[in-house]
Amino acid sequence: MSTSPTISFIGAGNMASAIIGGMLDNGYKAGDIWVSAPDDGHLQAIRKRFGVSVTTDNRYCTQQANMVVLAVKPQVMADVCRDIAPVVQNTRPLMVSIAAGLTADTLDEWLGGGLPLVRVMPNTPSLVGKGAAGLFANKHVKDDQKAMVQSVFESIGSALWVDDENLLHGVTALSGSGPAYFFLMLEALEAAATDAGIEPATARELAIQTMAGAAEMAARSEHDPAQLKRNVMSPGGTTEQAVNTFEEGGLRELVKKAYQAAFKRSEVMASELAGKQ
Ligand SMILES: NC(=O)C1=CN([C@@H]2O[C@H](COP(=O)(O)OP(=O)(O)OC[C@H]3O[C@@H](n4cnc5c(N)ncnc54)[C@H](OP(=O)(O)O)[C@@H]3O)[C@@H](O)[C@H]2O)C=CC1
Ligand SMILES: O=C(O)[C@@H]1CCC=N1
């Protein structure tokens, strides 16, 4: 990390906690991080857990920072942005939104206009340094500001830029929502193995280690996932039976439908919330 910006998070929920936890494990200092949210009890828990500075005052939190991360639900974003607009129009920090759906133009309008703004679609594995984030910069963002936000998200995983903002719908449906798809797979595998008599704790550990091992292999291997799958499928063996069952049950089509449902929801949120007063 070349610089040490002060970074303020507006919102202290699942995603802010995941990003902050990952940053602190990867070289960022608690003293450079501020967090604001309405519930002081919740904030005190965050302060104890991470040692960051906290306040219930979004404007005060915003004022401290070179980089302000908007980490509230899309539905409250308009009110939050309008409230801090006078501050950011004065201090002109780099604004970063991690909200699903909301476009850079909509956010910039709520913030009073003309601000450098990066939209990031991160995911919760950021907490363990294994995040995957897609990033889009509006036209006001300078190269050093791009480097600043990239440095934050690279400290907690992969950070890849897209040059067309519409592609963030596709990133949201892939890596933003994606951890939930794999958690669902873990739940289902664990349940099947437990039904077959394996102790729940044993089933969970074997399932998790298998998923982590498969992901690590896919990341490191020169082969594509299809080949890696074939390498497990001995002709006439057990895996073939399971994979055929998935294929006959329409797993690929189901995954595509699920992906498209998430994509569509991101688009709908963008257009519904753009008109919010
Ligand atoms: N969860 C995920 O996997 C991902 C989420 N996102 C995006 O991240 C954003 C946050 O999601 P997530 O962390 O899951 O949501 P959470 O509900 O966990 O957190 C929302 C936070 O916003 C705070 N908040 C509510 N109103 C205000 C306000 N007026 N001012 C300041 N803070 C406020 C809440 O405060 P309090 O603590 O007091 O209740 C809470 O801390 C969303 O926009 C979502 O689209 C993006 C990628 C992945
Ligand atoms: O479900 C959501 O809307 C957010 C965005 C991606 C992951 N969680």
Radius of gyration over C-alpha positions, nearest whole angstrom: 21 Å
Number of domains: 2
3D shape: elongated
List bound small molecules: NADPH dihydro-nicotinamide-adenine-dinucleotide phosphate, (2S)-3,4-dihydro-2H-pyrrole-2-carboxylic acid
The mean pLDDT is: 95
**Portion in strands:** 5-15%
Uncertain parts = none
Amino-to-carboxy terminus distance: 39 Å
The number of helical runs is 12
Largest sheet: 8 strands, mixed
User: What is the string of SSEs from the N terminus onward?
Assistant: EHEHEHEHEHEEHEHHHHHH
- Lateral strand order in the biggest sheet: 3-2-1-4-5-6-7-8
CATH superfamily of the largest domain: NAD(P)-binding Rossmann-like Domain
> What is the total tally of β strands?
8
The CATH class designation of the largest domain is: Alpha Beta
DSSP helix fraction = 55-70%
Which structural category do the helix and sheet elements fall into? alpha/beta
So, CATH architecture of the largest domain? 3-Layer(aba) Sandwich
CATH topology value of the largest domain = Rossmann fold
Subcellular location: Cytoplasm
Main location: cytoplasm
Family: Belongs to the pyrroline-5-carboxylate reductase family.
InterPro entries: 6-PGluconate_DH-like_C_sf (IPR008927), NAD(P)-bd_dom_sf (IPR036291), P5C_Rdtase_cat_N (IPR028939), P5CR_dimer (IPR029036), Pyrroline-COOH_reductase (IPR000304)
